[in-house]
């Protein structure tokens, strides 16, 4: 992804989907970012248990090129023409923006981030104690993707002083 290009819904959806395969973070930079997110969301009223806080944000649909590589879709037999590819894009993203719910929860030493009710990020103060039956380790190469997921909502959060 181009660093100067705004984050689009197709790219973000791909990150969220891939996070289900590896969501536990261990690197210090990602931990600091996650704790900063929790701090920034403190002004949001708790709803429910486990210090649950949430808010909604939008991302632009982006361009058809953000949706995917037409040549790859053609090669895989997913589409037979450019028009079919563009129709598929608009079927997935019919509105100019897509809404996302970002929710955080803290239970004991577990910090969790959910996007549209999907667990995307998990951090434990003591990673030797697992509360989930199949903990997945967030690989170092995915740390940047995690930071993009967390940062997507940052402009909408009340800044800390």
Describe this structure in words.
With 161 residues, the chain is an alpha+beta fold. It has two domains: 16-55 and 101-154, no CATH class; 62-95, no CATH class. It is built from six helices and four strands. It has helices spanning 9-19, 28-40, 64-67, 70-75, 82-92, 143-152; strands at 53-60, 97-107, 110-115, 118-124. The chain has a four-stranded antiparallel sheet with strand order 1-2-3-4. Helix 1 (9-19) crosses helix 6 (143-152) and helix 2 runs parallel beside helix 6. The chain is elongated and about 50 Å long.
Which helices and strands appear, and what pairs or packs with what?
Blueprint (H helix, E strand, L loop, with lengths): L8 H11 L8 H13 L12 E8 L3 H4 L2 H6 L6 H11 L4 E11 L2 E6 L2 E7 L18 H10 L9
Antiparallel strand pairs: 1-2, 2-3, 3-4
Helix pairs in contact: 1-6, 2-6
Give the neighbour order of strands across the main sheet: 1-2-3-4
Order of helices and strands: HHEHHHEEEH
Structural class assignment = alpha+beta
Number of helices: 6
| Binned strand content | 15-25%
C-alpha Rg, in Å? 17 Å
What value does the average pLDDT take?
Answer: 78
Coarse shape: elongated
Largest sheet: 4 strands, antiparallel
Instruction: Indicate how many domains the architecture comprises.
Output: 2
Q: Count all strands and give the number.
A: 4
Distance between the termini: 31 Å
Unreliable runs, pLDDT <50, ≥5 residues? 128-142, 154-161
- Please give the share of residues in helix: 25-40%
